[in-house]
Write a structure and sequence with these properties.
This protein has nine helices and eight strands. With about 250 residues, it is an alpha/beta fold. Helix 7 links the parallel strand 7 and strand 8. The protein is globular and about 45 Å long. The mean pLDDT is about 95.
Length: about 250
């Protein structure tokens, strides 16, 4: 029982060998994959995929890179999609001050709007946070999500993780946990409570060792599970089962 809680299977990089990617998921014994939207078209694609494949679930939302140009019609359509039985989260949403592809003031405003929309839809949020720790924490404290959420591909310190956990959020680990220079993530993976972590790939990005340099895919989430098992001195199966149960609890699946 392994759940890749964050992937982008509708990415064009899977177009030529999509059936092989699905076969790899099956061979790797991945039970569930959450396909996560980053704008309106990808959110629609996620819902379509979720209906084509029983093991795929969907999340809908607008990534901070793509917040310029959203309109009332965008929110209206996303709220329609959010009513679908296979939509389990609102995301990925948040702040990205590393690339700064959208003005920060707009990022903040749209992040707040999407928290409110997720509350309206009755969904947990999937948070993207890059180099925006202070503003992001301030936002979720002032505009708390009513149905919880997860910090995807967690990159912060243990000190920040304690704040995140105290606010009721889950923490998700991806490929960077396996990198040799991954000091912060390793510390957090060692200390996070057993009932508060997920695993993910963020496919096709952030490929874990030993596949680093190649296109990522959900089958490689096994490497993240294995790394957590190594760090916590647990069996692979125990880590896989616990992360699966944790995701099931938040996403109510």
């Amino acid at each position: 029982m392994i759940w890749d809680t964050h992937a982008h299977l509708d990415d064009p990089r899977y177009r030529e060998d999509f059936e092989q990617i699905l076969a790899n998921i099956k061979m790797a014994q991945i039970s569930r994959v959450t396909n996560v939207g980053y704008d309106l078209p990808s959110s629609e694609n996620s819902v379509e995929l979720a209906h084509r494949y029983e093991f795929i679930y969907a999340a809908v939302g607008v990534h901070p890179h793509d917040v310029e140009g959203v309109s009332a019609k965008t929110w209206e359509r996303l709220l329609q999609l959010a009513q679908d039985d296979k939509v389990i989260g609102w995301g990925e949403i948040g702040l990205d001050y590393y690339r700064d592809l959208s003005p920060r003031s707009i990022q903040k405003d749209i992040f707040i709007q999407q928290i409110e929309l997720a509350n309206q839809a009755g969904l947990p949020i999937i948070i993207h946070n890059r180099d925006a720790h202070e503003d992001l924490l301030k936002t979720i404290k002032e505009h708390p999500p009513q149905h919880g959420g997860v910090f995807h591909c967690y990159s912060g310190s243990w000190e920040m993780a304690k704040i995140v956990l105290n606010l009721g959020f889950y923490i998700s680990f991806a490929g960077p946990l396996t990198f040799k220079n991954s000091r912060y993530a390793v510390e957090v993976a060692a200390k996070v409570p057993r009932d508060r972590f997920f695993v993910e790939t963020d496919s096709p990005y952030l490929t874990p060792e030993p596949y680093r340099g190649k296109r990522n895919e959900p089958a490689y989430v096994r490497e993240v599970v294995a790394k957590i098992a190594e760090i916590r001195k647990l069996d692979f199966e125990e880590v896989a089962r616990q992360s699966f149960e944790n995701a099931s609890k938040l996403f109510k699946v």
